[in-house]
Amino acid sequence: MTQAKELALPQMRATPSTWRRWLAQAETPYALISGLAFFLTWQVAVDAFDFPAYLLPSPLAVLKDLVLSWDLLLSETAVTLFEIVLGFIVSVAIAMPLAILFTYSRTFERLVYPIIVGTQTIPKVAVAPLFLVWFGFGLLPKIIIVTLITFFPIVINAVVGLKSLNMQTVYLAQSMGASPLQVFWRFRLPNALPSVFAGLKVAIVLAVIGAIVAEFVGADSGLGYLIIVAATDQNVTRQFSAILILSVAGILLFGLIGLLERQLLPWHSSVRRDALVDS
Amino acid sequence: MLIKIEDVTKTYSTRNGPIRALDPLSLDIKQNEFVSIVGPSGCGKSTLMMMLSGLVSHSTGRISIAGKPINGPYTDIGIVFQQDTLLEWRTVIRNVLLQAELRKLDMVKYTERARHLLEIVGLKDFENMYPHELSGGMRQRASICRALLHNPPLLLMDEPFGALDALTRDQLNVDLMRFWRESPTTVLFITHSVSEAVFLSDRVVIMSARPGRIEDVVDINLPRPRRLAIRETPQFLEYSRRIGRVFESSGILRED
User: Fold this and answer.
1) Which residue, of B97, B125, B152, is where some domain finishes?
2) Minimal CB count within 10 Å: which of A202, B195, B200, B224?
3) B22 and B8 in one domain?
4) Which of B84, B95, B132 to mutate to test the interface with A (most CBs of A within 10 A)?
5) What whole-number distance in Å separates Cα of residue B142 and Cα of residue B114?
6) In the predicted model, what is the mean pLDDT of chain B?
């Protein structure tokens, strides 16, 4: 029985020096390098070909706008961010119970699933004007659109995850005297989490799109509103500022979900760095 | 008599009508007896085992364990499947302790026992690792520790070593024998391997293809404790041949 150690797969590879290992594992430096290269190329191109600012402003011009109008941009960002986050939370709150119902009731799934698929085939932009009529310019129509656009990937992925618990594990749980509730909390839900997170990651990116679509259709604040106003003023630089903020916000929100995933699922292959090496 | 199986059958209803998985089958298993079931794929070995646990219902007949009829999940057991069914999100020791958690056993006492079991199978230094960090053999060892944690009077094993390489398989046979010697319990062991069945068992039950029925039961009178070298003795080979002949005479195994 002392052979156990020899039978274990060797986990250790030759140990490189610390900074090398850090470089091999960290992703941020790579993203910084490619991001910097992108903006540099952009700046050089604008300078070299002398693009007029109403067509393509330089990154420096955008940066200047960001710095000078930071208070306005910040307050509009807060509005949009609030819509994104609140809509996302509402979406999760609706999608998760729905996914659980789908998992446990085949009848419910057959009844409701087609309706959900049906609503997903309708472009959200097409119904947004309706919401304007029904719910006005306020927060509510934005939340509804963000929710509508995000909840589909959350439901789909959660259902796949919840259904993926194999029968033997259920048997095992029952042989230990687990109640159906215990099977859910201790086996089915944790087993589904990697899949749930895959859905959440897609959804958070869509949430940003949803909020902007909603603001385009009718709003009196927010980054989407800011873009529309800037477009009518032919202020291209301002539009770029808003787009840049949206992109950064999207990346941060996505990163936040990823961080949560890493904290909750340190065991899962989507999180492990060695996944491709030893599986 | 600990386990009594009397005229038990199993019929599954499918889209193409009922399918009979088991013909009337009777078998008694004594307390602390090690019984193996060998037979071709799909002969209903696993079904029979699951019916003992009450997790799969039997269609007709009676099953009783220690005098109690089985009509629903019977939890006084430990189960090991071919897939180790370790929970990927729990460390090795917490996987083993799951058994104690769900049964609401004294966690302090059983943590000690879990450590003891893991030590026996050489997983002492791995208790805080996640299953994905272990090899297949180590994972299956951990799942055996989980099945034994609460000292179950009945251990059900469904081809537990079927997915392992020959060397690891031998090692686990030895480990299992050691557990069984230290704390004897009734074992129903399902396998494809005749030599594994002879090596481990007091009795080998040979089943036919579907619908499954018992072709023969062979008592293995080899001295215990057995070492792996016993597999080369004439008596051992004779048992293997006898079981092989049953497969041939019943048409389970055909050479031309």
Assistant:
1) B152
2) B224
3) yes
4) B132
5) 10
6) 91
Residues B144 and B217 in one domain: no
- The three-class DSSP label of residue B86 is coil
Query: Do B108 and B184 belong together in one domain?
Result: no
Q: Where are the domains of chain A?
A: 63-268
- All residues of chain B having their beta carbon less than 8 Å from the beta carbon of residue A176 are 75, 98-99, 102-103
Pairwise pLDDT comparison (A86 vs B75), residue with the higher score = A86
ipTM tops the 0.85 cut: yes
For residue A2, the chain B residues in CB contact (below 8 A) are 122
Q: B170 with B81: CB under 8 angstroms? A: no
- Predicted structure pTM score: 0.82
Q: Are residues B67 and B141 in the same domain?
A: no
Instruction: Give a yes or no: residue B254 inside a domain.
Output: no
Determine the Cα–Cα distance for residues A108 and B146; give it in Å rounded to an integer. 37
Domain that holds residue B212: 3-76+153-249
Coil vs helix vs strand at A211? helix
Q: Which residue is it, tokens 């770029």?
A: A240
Same domain for B162 and B206, yes or no, is yes
User: Which of B152, B178, B209 represents a domain boundary (last residue)?
Assistant: B152
Residue B1 pLDDT > 80: no
Query: Are the Cβ atoms of B75 and A1 closer than 8 angstroms?
Result: no
Total domains in chain B come to: 2
Residues B158 and B243 in one domain: yes
Inter-chain touch B83–A191, beta carbons under 8 Å: no
Q: Please check whether the domain covering A63-268 is classified as CATH 1.10.3720.10.
A: yes
CA A104 to CA A188: how far, in whole Å? 11
Residues of A contacting chain B (CB within 8 angstroms):
1-5, 7-9, 11, 166, 168-169, 171-178, 182, 186-187, 190-191, 193, 265-269, 272, 279
pLDDT digits over B152-179, tens only? Answer: 999 999 999 988 899 999 999 999 999 9
pLDDT for residue A4 is more than 50: no
User: Residue B135 is nearest to which of A9, A173, A177, comparing CB atoms?
Assistant: A9
Q: What is the pLDDT of residues B26-63, one digit of tens each?
A: 999 999 999 999 988 878 888 899 999 999 999 999 99
pLDDT the model gives residue B231: 93
Q: Residue B69: which CATH number?
A: 3.40.50.300
Q: How far apart are CA B240 and CA B236, in angstroms?
A: 6
B157 and B66 together in one domain: yes
Q: Is B26 helix (H, G, I), strand (E, B) or coil?
A: strand
Whether B71 and B162 map to the same domain: the answer is yes
Nearest Cα neighbor of B219 from B235, B203, B200, B241 is B203
Instruction: Please give the Cα distance from B158 to B188 (Å, whole number).
Output: 8
